[in-house]
Design brief:
four-stranded antiparallel beta sheet; 388 residues; 11 helices; Butyryl-CoA Dehydrogenase, subunit A, domain 2; three-stranded mixed beta sheet; 9 strands; alpha+beta; Butyryl-CoA Dehydrogenase, subunit A, domain 3; Butyryl-Coa Dehydrogenase, subunit A, domain 1; globular
Length: 388
């Protein structure tokens, strides 16, 4: 498959990509199937990733980070996607959770947590979704009441990525229950705080190596110093970070779509049936013609994704642009994995083949970080509200 030039990336980025690719080949790819059976990755992997500089690359040196740029973290996400590794939750840890601490944590909290997150000694998660509320943060029922120098936190969260391994959890809660979105605050809960427990490791149809947990908070006393920013500003903080979160989905989906296409091209060129290459069968050639259309979409998707990244780095990616990108790339991944699986025939339905796992892994991308229906609504509203 033709590789497009990517002017966003420098020689330093390219060298880092080779480093990440070696790490993935040696430390992740040989073990990922076993982690899928175990429904989680070992904590030691995080420490290895930290030692190799793969976590929170963008974080300034003053906060314990390498002082690089966000492109390094996107490279990590792309290389994980390249091998179909959905288990290691490095991108969420680095690109979604760490920015809340960097932007809104107290200096003491930052120094206590961020260097350890860079080293992989502490693993981070964010807890918004609740049973019955989905992604409607304004409707959450988890509450925190102020009691002297603490908040007393009670509630339940579900579908939390990195949930079982997490040492640091940014929890969306209501500090003013009657104020809707204006009553939402963000508290940092740490492993070991009394009353903080984890439920079952949730069984999913895909992304089996990614630990996904229920979290319970029963009168957890959280120091007031663990409040991120100002009380009642949590909803605003979450909305400010949504564009970066949705861009991260685009980055991962694009990389995984490219990988699925490459696996399929390799398979149909090498696989033989009735002493012929699969690629030589007339029906397969028809399907490959259809796949050529998908390949064109992938090429367009790469250009689109890099444009979104460039806009974000320049501070120009707004909520509508990020929503449109997330919609495009998550739907693209679904189409690509479906078309590619078909070309594998019965083997495509076998979990031993990466395309089968990629097909199942892809489905959630159209749901989390905002469903495709919500993304369409955001884009449509912008079109209707635009001046004529």
């Amino acid at each position: 498959m033709h590789t497009q030039a990517r002017p966003l990336f420098t020689a330093e980025h390219d060298a880092f990509r080779e480093q990440v690719r070696r790490f993935c080949a040696q430390e992740i790819a040989p073990h990922h199937a076993a982690w899928e059976d175990a429904h989680g990755v070992p904590r030691a992997l995080w420490q290895h990733a930290g030692a190799n500089g793969l976590l929170c690359c963008w974080l300034p040196e003053a906060l314990g980070g390498p002082g690089a740029d966000l492109l390094f973290d996107f490279i990590v996400a792309e290389e994980l996607g390249r091998i179909g590794a959905t288990g290691p939750g490095f991108p969420l840890h680095s690109v979604i959770v760490a920015p809340y601490l960097a932007a809104h944590g107290t200096p003491a909290l930052q120094q206590a947590l961020l260097p350890a997150m860079v080293a992989g000694e502490k693993i981070a998660a964010i807890a918004m979704t609740e049973p019955g509320t989905g992604s409607d943060v304004a409707a959450i029922r988890t509450q925190a009441r102020r009691d002297g120098e603490h908040y007393v936190l009670s509630g339940q969260k579900t579908f939390i990525t990195n949930g079982h391994n997490a040492d640091v959890v940014v929890v969306a809660c209501k500090t003013e229950p009657d104020q809707g979105a204006r009553g939402v605050s963000l508290l940092v809960v740490e492993r070991g705080m009394p009353g903080f427990t984890r439920g079952r490791n949730l069984r999913k149809i895909g992304q089996h190596a990614q630990d996904t947990a229920e979290l319970f908070f029963e009168e957890v006393r959280v120091p007031a110093s663990h409040l991120l920013g100002e009380e009642g500003q949590g909803f605003k903080y979450l909305m400010q970070k949504l564009a970066q979160e949705r861009l991260l989905v685009s980055v991962g989906c694009q990389a995984r779509a490219e990988a699925a296409l490459q696996w399929t091209v390799d398979y149909v060129k090498e696989r033989k049936a009735f002493r012929q290459r699969v690629a030589d069968f007339q029906n397969t050639r028809f399907k490959l013609a259809a796949l050529a259309a998908v390949a064109t979409d992938i090429t367009a998707g790469r250009a689109y994704c890099d444009t979104l990244i460039a806009q974000h780095l320049a501070g120009e990616l707004d909520a509508v642009g990020a929503a449109a990108g997330k919609l495009w790339h998550s739907e693209l991944l679904g189409r690509v994995t479906d078309e590619c699986l078909q070309l594998f025939g019965g083997y495509g339905y076998m979990a031993d083949y990466p395309i089968a796992r990629a097909y199942a892994d892809a489905r959630i991308e159209r749901i989390y970080a905002g469903t495709s229906e919500i993304m369409k609504e955001i884009v449509a509203r912008d079109l209707l509200d635009a001046p004529r």
